[in-house]
Amino acid sequence: MTTTASPYGDERKLRLEHVMSDETAGTLQALLADFDLTVLGVTFWNCFRPWQVPVRRISDNFLFFVTSGEELCSVDGVERVLRRGECMIVPEFSAHSFGLAPGCDAASHFIIHALYGSVTGVNPFAGFVSPFLKVDFPEAFFAELTSITAMRNFNRDTAARRAQYLVKCFFCRQAEAGHYRFSGRRATDGRVAAAIRFINANFPGGIGVPDIAAAAGLGEVRLRQLFRRDTGMTPAAYLLRTRLVNAARLLARYDLPLAQVAAETGFSSESYLCTAFRRCFERTPEEYRRFIRRP
User: Fold this and answer.
1) What is the pLDDT of residue 183?
2) CB under 8 Å to 62, separation ≥6 — which residues?
3) What's the pTM?
4) Neighbouring residues of 35: CB distance < 8 A, sequence distance ≥ 6
5) What pLDDT is attached to residue 193?
6) Which of 155, 126, 37, 130 is nearest to 78 (CA)?
7) Whole-angstrom Cα distance, residue 238 to residue 233?
8) Tally: H helices and E strands in the chain
9) What is d(CA 239, CA 233) in angstroms, rounded to the nearest whole number?
10) What is the helix (H) or strand (E) element at residue 28, kind and residue range?
11) Beta-bridge partners for 96
12) Among residues 249, 186, 158, 196, which one has the least CA distance to residue 33?
């Protein structure tokens, strides 16, 4: 406690050191500084028997918040019945399913689809101690989600920014409760970090591995060695994934022709974009746009 003289009487400024550990503070700093999150969509659903979504894998991170009824959910084979204020967090490409629980004829929920900006290291959405969690202050949380969902009818970008802030707050609350650790791996070699910065700044252009190596001051063979060691990916794979993630962002936000999406994200042709996109996301770009932007 810090005590300071005051002209207003006996008032004492408290530092609250006991409220937060060094580890939690570090996690929150990493989340707020390094968590490059893009919310693709927020939707609200009322569902009635015999509704059921079978086991599937999707290419973005999936957040599922139950507002009424009971829903039987599974992630990677682990099942849980969720009720109001409970949620399921599914990292990209993880097997999951959801539907009405036995004995329940109707339920409702919010769904958020999100992408993580960095394409290397550990996906932050995989940092929860369990995929099944509870929301703090669900009334306020659902009121905000309701407003965000309504805002999508007027301005999708504004709704996405509000949702991004809400998701980050959710992560922070879970971290403070000890339910989350930010464990994204970062490049340790300065030359690899320089290569990543170059890719992130220049991916819309016609760059390739030779350009990345030159920007990092390395030969191509040495760049591949260091890049794979520090990120688990090759420079070419990182470049392609960066282009695909940014193409997905454009498809989710704007009604751009595919040729323009390809040009703005560094693909040499619309057909190359479509081939690479389908291989990664298991949908064509147009199918993905319809899926993400459905009302």
Assistant:
1) 62
2) 88, 89, 90, 92, 96, 111, 112, 113
3) 0.75
4) 116, 124, 168, 171, 182
5) 86
6) 130
7) 6
8) 10, 9
9) 10
10) helix 22-34
11) 56, 75
12) 186
Stretch(es) of the chain classified as CATH 2.60.120.280? 22-176
Does the bond joining 50 to the residue before it have cis omega, within 30 degrees of 0? Answer: yes
- Please list the residue range(s) of the chain that carry CATH number 1.10.10.60: 190-293
Tell me the DSSP string of 145-179.
HHHHHHHTTT-HHHHHHHHHHHHHHHHHHHHHTT-
- Write the CATH number of the domain with boundaries 22-176: 2.60.120.280
* Burial class, 168, CB count within 10 angstroms (exposed 0-12 / middle 13-18 / buried 19+): middle
Q: Which tokens hold the place of 63?
A: 């957040």
Percentage of the residues of the chain whose pLDDT score is greater than 90: 56
Report long-range pairs for 85-88 (Cβ below 8 Å, ≥24 apart). Answer: 85/134, 85/135, 85/138, 86/132, 86/133, 86/134, 86/135, 87/63, 87/132, 87/133, 87/134, 87/135, 88/62, 88/63, 88/64, 88/131, 88/132
- Dump pLDDT digits (tens) for 242-274: 899 889 888 887 889 999 999 999 999 999 999
Residues 82, 70: contact at Cβ < 8 Å? yes
**Helix, strand or coil, per DSSP, at residue 129:** coil
221 three-class SS? helix
Q: Please, what CATH class does the domain formed by 190-293 belong to?
A: mainly alpha
Task: Decide: helix, strand or coil at residue 81.
Answer: strand
Q: 5-19, 105-119, 133-147, 228-242 — which is least confidently predicted?
A: 5-19
Task: Tell me if 139 sits within 8 A of 80, measured CB to CB.
Answer: no
Structure tokens at 136: 């703090």
The H or E element that residue 78 is part of is strand 78-82
Q: What is the CA radius of gyration of the chain?
A: 22
First CA to last CA distance, the chain: 52
Residue 55 phi, psi (nearest 5): -60, 135
Q: Which residue has the higher pLDDT, 117 or 225?
A: 225
